[in-house]
Write a structure and sequence with these properties.
By secondary structure, this protein is of the alpha+beta class. Strands 3-2-4 form a 3-stranded antiparallel β-sheet. A two-stranded antiparallel sheet has the order 1-5. The protein is elongated, with a radius of gyration of 25 Å. It starts with a helix and ends in a 14-residue tail after the last strand.
Length: 132
Amino acid sequence: HIMPTYVAFAMDECAREATLEAMEQNKVRPFQDAREEFFFDTISIPPPVKKGKKKKKKGKKKKKGSVAADAADAPPPEPEVVEEPAWLTFETMKEAIDAGWKPGQSFSFVARDCKGQLMKDDTGATPIGDQG
């Protein structure tokens, strides 16, 4: 009974922190109450993972000589083309959670009403590795 609240809080908190970090990296100082005023929509989550079938155990190996003969007769195997399934998009976080999003999974979102002040000097965040 507490799980739905935890899942919703986790997604919301993650989105708010990611938005603040993005603002900082783009040299935008958020206003004091900006964190509470963010609005998130167009939530995208990865499609559910399909469980693969268990592979059957192979029988005993043939002698080395017969394996080479079989391989020479067989045409080369064609590489499988596996299309990545498209992410699922929802208007609200609740819809994305109801569709199966769990804490720890990736998701993307559009943040709106992100109010802040553009900083002209170098007091903003610096990229990792840029120590000079």
